[in-house]
Design brief:
The protein is an alpha+beta fold and 249 residues long. It is 28% helix and 27% strand.
Length: 249
């Protein structure tokens, strides 16, 4: 069942999204060679306490950290650790909060120092694909217009879309209906978009093949060919006036 949010509920989701955006902005500023993802995780948790918010991921399904920190070939759900970040790496951070009873969820991929042209292009195209998907969010539009925009953008550049993980509805629960793939799953256009829907749209894009595998920790997803991967995400509301990005400052 797809849950439509009232005006009052959307106000609460705006507040949750603002907390996510502010904390992710702080984390992004800290990313540089020598910093550890464990330090970034502690910072995120500290900033949640300051804002009286709860990290959405910590404890969710047994996940043990506040952020997902996924460098280079790690696609999503990477564990923060004490290994210093190396120059030339790209780092994806996925982060969410529970605030005023509602969830916010967002992700970005950032360079660690100077990165090569392939990684830079991968990051730019992944972010662009998210923007193009968000442009398709409108009342009366259809869900699969979003993955069509992502897949067309990504594959035109010779990259591939991860198929095992999808975006999702979001609200009082972290994962609500509908699921939002980043590729067109078949015939039809999917459900119609209506005002009050709130969507976590999150393209995950690989430089090489689309295949992924899960490491022994049971969480960390990596590319099967060892090529880098990038990830961007925003929580977006469907409104009568078009898309409203709730996790953007």
């Amino acid at each position: 069942m797809i849950v439509l949010k009232s005006r009052a509920e959307l106000d609460k989701m705006r507040d949750a999204g603002k907390v996510v955006a502010e904390i992710l902005a702080l984390l992004k500023e800290r990313i540089k060679p020598g910093v550890t993802t464990a330090e970034l995780d502690r910072l995120a948790e500290k900033e949640c306490r300051k804002r009286q918010a709860k990290p959405a991921f910590k404890g969710y399904g047994g996940f043990p950290y506040s952020i997902c920190a996924s460098p280079d070939e790690q696609v999503v759900h990477g564990f923060p650790n004490a290994v210093p970040l190396a120059e030339g790496t790209i780092l994806s951070i996925d982060f969410g909060v529970i605030y005023r009873g509602f969830y916010g969820d967002s992700a970005f991929t950032a360079p660690v120092g100077t990165i090569n042209k392939q990684k830079q292009h991968l990051v730019e195209i992944t972010e662009r694909s998210l923007s193009l998907a968000i442009e398709q969010v409108c009342c009366g539009g259809y869900l699969y217009d979003l993955p069509r925009a992502v897949q067309t953008c990504v594959e035109a550049e010779g990259f591939s879309v991860v198929r095992e993980f999808v975006g999702h509805g979001i609200g009082k629960s972290l994962h609500e209906e509908p699921q939002i793939p980043n590729f067109v799953p078949g015939a039809g256009r999917g459900v119609q978009l209506n005002s009050g829907m709130t969507l976590a749209i999150e393209p995950m894009v690989n430089a090489g093949s689309p295949g992924v595998k899960i490491l022994r920790d049971g969480w960390t997803a990596v590319t099967v060919d060892g090529q880098p991967s990038a990830h961007f995400e925003h929580t977006v509301a469907v409104t009568d006036n078009g898309p409203e990005i709730l996790t953007q400052i």
